[in-house]
Design goal:
Strand 1, helix 1 (8-19) and strand 2 form a beta-alpha-beta unit. The protein has a single domain, classed as Rossmann fold. It is mostly helical. Mean pLDDT is 92; it is low at 228-233. Helices cover 36% and strands 9% of the residues. Helix 1 (8-19) packs across helix 7 (168-177). The longest helix has 15 residues, at 96-110.
Length: 233
């Protein structure tokens, strides 16, 4: 069971799961995000990974507000890596990963699978609290306490986070080794009307930095051209 956003992290997590012999079911969530191009990317990636079943569900976190990804709040642009590493950014969506993992847990229990893969990362992660190892461990405990399958012992749920200790460059290298087509993915928080990434938001900057450090070219076409990664270090 893979939580699939359409970004390069979840695509790589899915490729790792497949390489480890897991049959893939994928769940994507339309939660009111402004960057809905990622949902189209999730469909492309699901086909690329040859998932057995891919579902897209709707949950309106946009009605809660409080995030630049769901509300009329400006997406930060041009921040340095050091700035990204301090504090929780305005692109944090309140309780998003908790909601997404809860949906994935329901999907997994229904499909009688104990293994849930999520592409969270605790190194190049822009300060999100729900990407940390202690959060994942806490949710895994909850999963086994709050489900019929967990209580009755028919399943022992495991939250797999194969990318959690990788840098973005490590993730890109591993995905490349496994044949991930990163041209199918989408990372940008503020794409243009054609879906081209802006090249200036935190997600774009971390992505571009990762490709540069991996010694590879990002296959995406950016609306403002590729950013000089050396200027951001």
């Amino acid at each position: 069971m893979l939580l699939l956003s359409g970004g390069l992290d979840s695509a790589t997590a899915g490729a790792i799961a497949r390489a480890d012999g897991f049959e893939l079911f994928a769940l994507s969530v339309q939660y009111g995000q402004r960057h809905q191009w990622e949902l189209a990317a999730s469909q492309r990636v699901a086909e690329h990974l040859r998932v057995r079943e891919h579902q897209i569900v709707d949950v309106d976190l946009g009605g809660m507000g409080g995030s630049a990804l769901t509300a009329d709040i400006a997406v930060p642009k041009g921040r340095s890596v050091e700035e990204m590493g301090h504090g929780i950014p305005v692109t944090y969506v309140p309780a998003r990963n908790t909601v997404l993992l809860a949906l994935a847990l329901a999907f997994a229990e229904t499909h009688q699978t104990a293994n849930i893969f999520i592409g969270v990362n605790a190194i190049d992660y822009s300060g999100y609290p729900d990407c940390r190892p202690d959060y994942i461990a806490a949710f895994e405990r909850l999963a086994n306490l709050a489900t019929k399958a967990g209580v009755e012992g028919s399943l022992q749920f495991k939250i797999h986070t194969p990318l959690i200790k990788m840098t973005k460059a490590d993730i890109i290298r591993r995905g490349t080794e496994l044949g991930v087509d990163f041209s199918l993915t989408h990372s940008c928080y503020d794409p243009d009307s054609q879906g081209h990434p802006c090249g200036r938001c935190d997600a774009c900057l971390l992505r571009l930095k990762g490709f540069a450090e991996a010694g590879l070219a990002d296959p995406l076409r950016y609306s403002q051209g590729l950013v000089n990664t050396d200027e951001r270090k």
